[in-house]
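User: Let's play a game. I give you a shape written as C-alpha cells, and you guess the letters that built it. Ready? Here's round one.
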C-alpha cells in the first residue's frame, strides 16, 4: 500500500521469531501503500482474476526467507525479489484474514521511477465517526465502503523509507493529502503508537531491511 510496495513494509512492530507476525506485516503493506505511487497504471497491469493461491504461496515462502535472514548473519547482502502478482495474490488469499477491519481488495502496481499505485476498498464509517468533524472536512460527507486510489513515490535506503504522495481519490473524487494521512494513521495505530504511521516522516524498515529496489512489476528487499 506501501511504498508502495514496500514503503509500507516498514511500519509494523518487529517480532523476528514469529512467522505469524511476519504475515501480518506483509498483509498490511497496502496500508502504507496507501501512501505511495504513480498516477497511471501500466497497460500490462494484471487483472484480479489472474491471482491464484499458488502465487500467494510463493510470497509466503519468500516471507519466511525474509524472517530467517533477519536473525542470521551474512557477509553479503541478501536479496529477496517480490513480484507484483505474488503480492496481490497474497492479499486476496493467504493474507486476507490478516487485513485490518475496513480495508479490503487492495491491488498494488509497481511502476518506473519509484512510482507505485494502490487501489483498495475502505469502509469509511468507523473512520468518520472517530471524532467530531466540521463541514469543511471531506470525510464528514463520506461513508460506507468506497474505492480509494493512491499514487506517489517511495524511496528506501539506509534502513528507512520516504514517501511522497502525489494523488488520492475516494470514489473517483480528488481529496487533500491530509485525508490519506488520517486513513493510514487509523489503520496503523497501535497501543504504543496511537497516532499511527506519519507519512511525512521517515519510516524505519524492520527485519534488518536496509534498502528497497524497485523495477516495473517487482521490488527487491535488501537485508
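Assistant: Ready! My guess for every position:
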Amino acid at each position: 500500500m506501501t511504498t508502495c510496495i514496500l514503503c509500507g513494509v516498514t511500519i509494523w512492530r518487529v517480532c523476528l521469531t514469529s512467522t505469524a507476525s511476519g504475515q501480518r506485516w506483509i498483509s498490511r503493506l497496502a496500508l502504507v501503500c496507501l501512501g505511495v505511487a504513480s498516477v497511471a497504471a501500466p497497460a500490462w497491469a494484471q487483472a484480479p482474476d489472474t491471482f491464484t493461491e499458488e502465487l500467494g504461496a510463493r510470497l509466503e515462502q519468500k516471507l519466511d526467507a525474509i524472517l530467517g535472514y533477519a536473525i542470521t548473519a551474512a557477509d553479503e547482502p541478501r536479496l529477496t525479489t517480490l513480484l507484483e502478482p505474488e503480492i496481490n495474490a497474497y492479499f486476496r488469499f493467504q493474507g486476507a484474514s490478516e487485513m485490518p477491519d475496513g480495508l479490503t481488495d487492495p491491488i498494488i502496481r509497481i511502476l518506473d521511477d519509484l512510482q507505485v499505485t494502490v487501489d483498495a476498498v475502505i469502509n469509511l464509517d468507523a473512520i468518520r465517526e472517530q471524532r467530531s468533524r466540521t463541514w469543511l472536512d471531506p470525510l464528514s460527507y463520506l461513508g460506507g465502503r468506497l474505492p480509494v486510489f493512491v499514487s506517489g513515490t517511495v524511496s528506501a535506503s539506509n534502513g528507512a523509507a520516504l514517501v511522497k504522495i502525489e494523488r488520492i481519490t475516494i470514489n473517483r473524487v480528488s481529496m487533500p493529502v491530509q485525508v490519506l494521512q488520517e486513513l493510514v494513521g487509523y489503520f496503523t495505530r497501535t497501543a504504543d503508537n496511537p497516532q499511527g504511521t506519519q507519512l511525512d516522516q521517515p519510516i524505519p524498515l524492520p527485519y534488518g531491511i536496509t534498502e528497497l529496489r524497485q523495477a516495473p512489476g517487482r521490488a527487491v528487499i535488501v537485508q
